[in-house]
Amino acid sequence: MIYEITNQFPNEMILSDDGGPHISLYQPTHRHYPENKQDLISYNLRGPINKFVVVNNSFHIKPLIQAFQSVENYQLLGLSQNNFTLYQGNRYGFSEIEIDSDIPRTLEAVLGKQQTDPSLTHGSFGGVGRPAVFHGQGDKKAEDDKDTEKYFRYVDHYVYENYSKASSMPLILVSLKEYHTQFKNLSSNPYLIEENIDCSYDSVEVEQLQSKILETNKSLNMKKQKKI
Length: 228
Known about the structure:
Helix content is 32%, strand content 21%. It is an alpha/beta fold and 228 residues long. The protein has a five-stranded mixed β-sheet with strand order 5-4-3-8-9, sandwiched between helices. Strand 8 (171-175), helix 4 and strand 9 form a beta-alpha-beta unit.
């Protein structure tokens, strides 16, 4: 059976108030074939639930409310000066989002011939017949910064148009501290959150990154509760 992950509490859910009795039945379902053929899934929750039944004058929906009351689902943008990777996850873990191999992802693939080359001039010094001496007029760091800005703008646009716009999930930036301000100053993605993770995403251990993500989500939940 094809179904979609439910990321927001289903407001269209009809809750009868005619006095009951109402039966609320909670039970885990099978995830894999062929056992999953015996289960008809109404909600696909991220985490396991306890098996129990409640008979009352109203439906028992506290477990459903609990499943949706915190910021769980998120996307991660692992960013370096030369490459990027996307992940999606929740409090139970995360996995890499597969991006089509035809999509350019590295700075070199994105910019190609548009990469900025330092300007070079040459002249003969010390007399006629001596080899020409080349000297640069451009600042190497300044040229690299221009290329990085072009690349970051590409990444920001690609991620928003192809992922953030469709999912509406919070986007957490994972990169070295030196890139945080630069990327956020040029980003137009409204789902990019203020909190970020300061580390090299392609060298950090999975367990360490997961721990940092949990801390970030805890901070988001505290802000959300304070606002409420």
